[in-house]
What does this fold into?
Amino acid sequence: MYNLHKQYGKTTAVQNVSMTISKGECFGLLGVNGAGKTTTFNMITGDTVPTSGEGYLYGHNITTQLREAQRYIGYCPQFDALIGQFTTCPTDSYYSCEEPLVSKYLI
It folds into this structure.
């Protein structure tokens, strides 16, 4: 990533963030509330488009080649990103280690 920047109107959420993450490396961002951590991850994962700057994952541009870039991302957000969208069956399967629950165990 080189000089990633995100502007919301007159508010700067992320200003010129640059970093290199090596192949196979696991990383996180630390900082105070409002520092731009979530916005930075949202740009990397394609949830929001950078106002300016460049980001590449394995040579794939995160803006113009997002689907290809996303194949190399494993992302664990701070809060459960999908739980509120699950219905009963997917939630049961998720919390049972991805093994479908046998009906006799359902209440």
